[in-house]
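Hi there,

I know you've been waiting on this one. I reran it after we fixed the sequence typo, so this is the corrected version. Both the input and the resulting structure follow.
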Amino acid sequence: MEPKYVQYHSDKESTYLSAIRQLISNDLSEPYSIYVYRYFLYQWGDLCFLALDENENMLGVVISKLEPHRGGPMRGYIAMLAVKKEHRGKGIATNLVRMAIDIMIERDADEIALETEVTNTAAMKLYERLGFLRSKRLHRYYLNGNSAFRFVLFVKESAFTSRFGYDDEHEHGEDENQPEPPPSA
């Protein structure tokens, strides 16, 4: 049976929060306090999505946020993604991440970033399939001592060009100082 995908709503916190914490603590290496979950869910709950079975049991979750990054681009951030082990390989994680990406794009994200452990090859393949690029390696990033890769999805060309100093017009030899071609007769 196909999971039901729902947007997180704060009025369901008593139903969902403990299940979210349980699922994430089983799957991710970082121990998050209740305050970390509340930080994301209270401010950006509408950017968080759940996959539920027919009995409303949680199969997967994605927790995200969207805000200006260092006074610059609007950066979406996928903070946590987890799917129950027995339900992996069914497209649940892909659907959850796509839902988060879609709503962040609707809300004018320039780019979307995340980190994942260098040992999590399944997650890295998922993000690369969705168009994310590895932007840097973060040594000993996690509390368990593991390193991470930061991935970035450039939603708008301007986010990419500002990051890498690439200017398409100048790259192709078009220069604003070149004379205009003569008008055709």
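Quick highlight: The chain has a mean pLDDT of 87.

Best,
R. S.
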